[in-house]
Design goal:
By secondary structure, this protein is mainly alpha-helical. The protein has helices spanning 2-18, 23-49, 51-63, 66-88, 107-125, 138-146, 150-155, 164-182, 200-204, 241-248, 266-282, and strands spanning 208-210, 215-216, 223-224, 229-232, 238-239. The chain folds into two domains: 2-189 and 265-282, no CATH class; 191-264, 2-Layer Sandwich (Herpes Virus-1), CATH 3.30.40.
Length: 284
């Protein structure tokens, strides 16, 4: 019952947030998602048809611990949240969410997570299909299983023939699935009270601006001298560089308003973006 409740809440929050988009925004988001899904279909099709690539990826999965597999899925979830949030929170000076400029995913990690999620899907629909079967035969079995879905969709133009709402439905299904696998360590919250450093890339991208004078740096409680370069966060609050850099090396919040900057911690970043989506959904 708890899993069903979490699934329902996740679906309703995403759908509520998506309902704020205009028709043109939905079309653009659908196109971005279609491209991602189509690219992932190509990767999975390659895994299922190449014995060498399948064996290499399977061996890599075997080498990973359970927590490392969870991290793979968390990164996959985060990549889709990074695709979604720019449409929900367009970049502007008043945006409540800071969107990272890039989200790089290693090819080996992408192959591994796609195969891992495919294993989970197969097990969900046919729990015994790989039981008492040598791993050497798994590729053939999975290729046959996927021929009517993954491989079939690939050659009939998956995501080109789907409507925007069908593509968004696929997004919701993926987020729900990934949240379920990541569990409470990820989207349901990082450890209460845990402070996470701001992303190095986000800190490097912060601009220097001139201080108008007469304004206090809330960290050191000293005035920011007129004409001196100070750091401005995306929320437009300003601080001495020498004060804010040590602050952001320990926490990713603005000292004034608690605005959240990106973090290099995958679970913390998922939580940051998910909280923003939930807040938007609750406003509907």
């Amino acid at each position: 019952m708890a899993d069903q409740s979490t699934t329902t809440t996740t679906e309703s929050m995403i759908m509520a947030a998506l309902s704020t988009l205009t028709s043109s925004q939905l079309t653009s988001l659908s196109a971005s998602l279609s491209a991602a899904f189509r690219r992932h279909n190509h990767h999975l099709a390659s895994l299922l048809t190449s014995p060498t690539l399948f064996a290499h990826t399977l061996n890599h999965l075997y080498s990973l611990s359970l927590s490392e597999k969870s991290l793979l899925i968390a990164r996959h979830l985060l990549s889709f949240l990074h695709l979604l949030t720019p449409f929900l929170f367009p970049l502007s000076s008043s945006s409540p969410v800071y969107i990272p400029s890039s989200n790089r995913v290693r090819l080996r990690d992408l192959d591994s997570v796609l195969l891992l999620l495919f294993f989970c899907e197969v097990r969900q629909h046919q729990p015994t299909i790989l039981e008492n079967v040598s791993p050497a035969r798994w590729q053939g079995i999975l290729k046959t299983y996927g021929s009517d879905t993954i491989l079939g969709n690939l050659y009939t133009g998956f995501a080109l023939s789907l409507s925007p709402y069908q593509v968004l439905g696929a997004l919701v299904d993926l987020v729900v699935k990934c949240r379920r696998f990541v569990g409470s360590k990820g989207c349901d919250g990082v450890e209460a009270g845990k402070e996470v450093a701001a992303s190095v890339d986000a800190v490097v991208a912060l601009p220097s601006v001139e201080s108008g004078g007469g304004v206090e740096c809330v960290i050191c409680k000293e005035e920011m001298s007129q004409g001196r370069d100070v750091c401005e966060l995306p929320c437009q609050h300003k601080f001495h560089w020498k004060c804010v850099l040590p602050w952001l090396s320990k926490r990713n919040t603005c000292p004034c308003c608690r605005f959240l900057l990106p973090t290099d911690d995958v679970y913390g970043e998922i939580q940051r973006l998910w909280d923003a989506i939930v807040k938007l959904g609750l406003q509907i």
